[in-house]
């Protein structure tokens, strides 16, 4: 558990899990998330990979500067975390807002990316379907889950919400992140992504329509598309082991692409 200070004074919190000599993967959370967002997935991913997870500025235990920023700044923050740890490259796994940040990294610094995993990620630009705005306080809510899952597993959902509220986003952070995501449009640049890419999405996602996954997979050369039947936006929680196994298989097939 560590922090680094960015040039603007913003302190970023990050954690590492697993064997430092294993294949590295960087996790990038969604709107209003934190390291806890990955709680159910982390043990599975860290069993085979060296996992780096950080709180975006405004989230969890990271600072929120008075002046807001953009997807570009959030991408630069993520690269700074990699630099702090000494990773010249890694697999980058982003979910929702984190997927947009991961796309930005793959486009601006492809040499830092061994492979790209885009989970529940909006496509942006032409062909994208409208996003559902987060709740006013940025708190996790039932729309993150597939309706049937939420109805049948209330204890699971309640446990998630307790964990996520341990380190909630700073006041106003979710709204600012939402606005940054709405402004981000890499649609015309997607064909320029040169790294192996996996697009992963739940078919019952009520926040980011699954059609976005099909757009991303069709625009990114050679991208693999995996749709989790019946899963919602929080598929990393609903189907933690299954989703992690898909990611581990993909990363395994693209391991060792660049030196650490």
List keywords for this structure.
about 260 residues, alpha/beta, 8-stranded mixed sheet, 8 strands
Task: Describe what you observe in this structure.
By secondary structure, this protein is of the alpha/beta class. 33% of the residues lie in helices and 18% in strands. The chain has nine helices and eight strands. An eight-stranded mixed β-sheet has the order 1-2-4-3-5-6-7-8, with helices on both faces. Helix 1 (42-46) links the parallel strand 3 (23-28) and strand 4. The longest helix is centred in the N-terminal third of the chain and has 15 residues, at 71-85. The model is unreliable at 134-139 (pLDDT under 50).
Quick rundown:
With 260 residues, the chain is an alpha/beta fold. It has helices at residues 42-46, 71-85, 97-108, 147-152, 154-164, 173-183, 211-219, 235-238, 240-253, and strands at 2-5, 11-17, 23-28, 49-54, 90-95, 113-119, 197-202, 224-228.
